[in-house]
Write a structure and sequence with these properties.
mainly alpha; Endonuclease III, domain 1; two-stranded parallel sheet; 11 helices; 52% helix
Length: 201
Amino acid sequence: MVAAMAVDEGRDGSRCSWATGEWLTPYHDEEWGVPVHDDVKHFEFLVLEGAQAGLSWLTVLKRREGYRSAFAGFDPVQVAGFSDAAIEELLTDARIIRNRQKVLSVRQNARALVDVVEELGSFDRFFWEFVDGAPIVNRWGRTEEIPASTDLSAKVSSELRRRGFGFVGPTVCYSHLQAAGLVNDHLVSCFRHRELAGALP
C-alpha cells in the first residue's frame, strides 16, 4: 500500500517516515506487514488497495470505515450478491471513492474470491502458497531500494486476473503482499522490521 521511506523516531527506536499523523502511525505500528490469515481481511486490503490506484494511501485510509459500512464489513459473500441497483447506489455514497470501475471491481473480486474459496478452501491459502507459507523478510537499508512491484507480485497478479479479479496489477499485488505480511518491507532500521522478523539480527 505504501513504500517504506527514511526513518523517524518510533516507540522502540526508529519507524518508517511515512508513518506520521493520527492515521498512518497506528496503521504502520499495528497492521502494515503483520501476517494475515483471514479471508475477510485479505478482501478488505484488496478493496482498499484497488481504491488507492492513482491516489494516496492516506486518502483511502481516511475512508476505510466508509468502505467497511458500504461493503458489508468486507464480507465477500455478501458483496458478491450485491445487485446492480446496490452498485448504482454506492456510486452516490460520498464515504467511498466513487469511481465506477473501482466500485464494480469490488463485486467482481468478491465473486472471484468466493470461487477461489470453493476450490482451495480459503483465500488465505491462495496467497500463502506463493511464499511457501512463510513471510519473505527483506533487508532494505534505503527507501530507494524498495521495489513497486516484483516478479512475485507479477505472478500473483497474473493468477488473480486469470481467476477473474480486477484492479490487481503487479503494483497493487505487491502492496498487498507488503500489507498482509507476506513480505516484510520495513526498513531494517525500523523497530517493526525487527519485531515482525521475530528476532533481532
